Each structure stands twice: as C-alpha cells, then as structure tokens.
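Chapter review: from sequence to fold.
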Amino acid sequence: MKIVSLLPSATEIVCSLGLQDQLVGVTHECDYPPAVQKLPKVTRTLIPHDATSAQIDALVRERLASERALYTLDMPALERLAPELIVTQALCDVCAVAEAEVKAAACTLPGAPRVINLEPQRLGEVLATIPQVAESAGVAERAGPVVAALQARIDAVVRRTRQIAARPRVMVLEWIDPPFSSGHWTPELVEMAGGVEGIGRSGLPSVTTAWKDIVAWAPEVMMIACCGFSVERTLEDLPILFRQPGWAELPCVRDDRVYAVDGSAYFSRPGPRLVDSLEILAHALHPEAHPCPAYGEFHVPRSKFQVHCFGTKERRRSGA
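The token string follows.
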C-alpha cells in the first residue's frame, strides 16, 4: 500500500508500525525518523522562514479569521505518487493542510485514495490512533505490541509518581511571544509526571495567556516547549521572557528550574514521542524519582539566568 502522511506525528506512527517502506510522501515538516526526510514532500508552508514569533502568531490569527490553513498541498506531487492511503488531521485549524482541501484533493486523485483523520485530544486518544492507522493500512495485528510498549513506559512513570508527596506548580509554555498556555494532552502529562498545571486546560486547545496570570500562578517549574521550534530557535526568544515584569522573582527562576525542550519533536506531536515528553517532564519535576531520559540534558546560560535544555545534544550531533 502506498501511504502519504500529511502530519509529522502520523509519519512517526506509520513508521512505528513498520510501514516506513510503504511511505511514498510526507510533509515538509516530517523529520523523524531521519530517513523520512529523503521522501518526496507534498506540502508547502506560507510562513516565511525568517518570521519572528510575533509575526508567526499574527499570521496564524489572520488565517484563523479567514478559515484558511498555513499549509497547502503540492497537487502535482500527489498525483505522481498516486497514494492509496492519506493520513491527515482535523485537530488544528492552522498547523496542517485544511481537512476540506485534503478531501477535495482525494476526489481528484487516481484510484480515490482512502483518507483518515486523526484528531486526538488526550493521551489515551493518541494511543488509540495507532490501531486506527494500522487497521487502515491493513496491518491491524501490529498495533497491539506498539501500544503495549508505550503504555508500559507510561505506567512506569505513573507508578514512580505515586510515591511522591510534593507536587510543584508547573507552567508549560507552548509559545513565548505572546505567551500561550499548554492544552490537549499536556496538562495530563504534567499530572502523570507529578506536577500541578494550574493554567493549561486538559483536552482543550492552548490559548493566549496574560503574563500577569503566569506571575500570579508563580510556577515552581517552567517547561518551554514552543510549538514547532527546536531548542536552538526557542533560545533565541528567551530574552523576551527575561524582559517580562516579575520574571526574576518567579520561583522557577529563583530556584533554577526553567527548562527548554524541542517543541517540534516533543509535546506538540500527538504520536509515540509524547511518551518521551512525559519522561522528560517527569525527570525535570522529580529527578530523584525519575531517571534522566536517554536523549540527555545539558545547560545553556543565557544572560544571568540558567536554562536547562533537553534533547539538543543529539540534534546538534546530527547537524540540525
């Protein structure tokens, strides 16, 4: 079966099921596993590569108001690939090709490929997309072991967390300029990892958050996971936070508990690596109880503040 993925998380799910050799096309953002970067790209972005965070936010808001997505299909490429299965999403109105465009395109493609939409809101629903993809690809029997392995890792974190009495106040930032709270599955991850997320809303989209509300919450741990940004790109925006009133007085800053993570690889993608995200978060909150994930940690000083970064060593070694 020839499969086209229109979502980085879907690409990771397809590959976790051992179907990488059946992937014939992916999005311009699909980068994991690394081999998929060599596949034909069937999408394009309307976001300028040098746009600031504020400019990206303004463009997103403009597109939401006009009900237009930020990505578009490369129809000639799709026609050449002639997929039999297209995996897409209807969860986010701007972070992937619009659902209506995908359905319209499928009607014009040779063979009328099947289109499946993935729209998980919570961690359990993310795991449920794996058998959904497996069944659509004709390999339903492969989903069970993949889901069981991920669930075992989740259960291990939850077991360790049960032994922890102190639960710090946590803020997961999904964007810096302007600040966005976390949403969907992330507040669940915070709870499983042994923290309390007082601003993010489980099962609902992330939203713009007033800085005064963050100061009022007084987070004891802050995780910065900017949607679609690498750690290196996120670090470029940290001075914006440093200039916010009351930044230096936040408990997480005073106690050196501010973390940056690759928001493209972790937290934002509703796929297998959400479990990696849980393990990163658990170690950040309770390093005495949860081991440091294999993807590692190192420290990057910025101004007079210290920021702990996860997952960047591996990316830098690969030249990313």
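Two observations follow directly from the output. The longest strand covers residues 297-302. The two ends are 31 Å apart (CA to CA).
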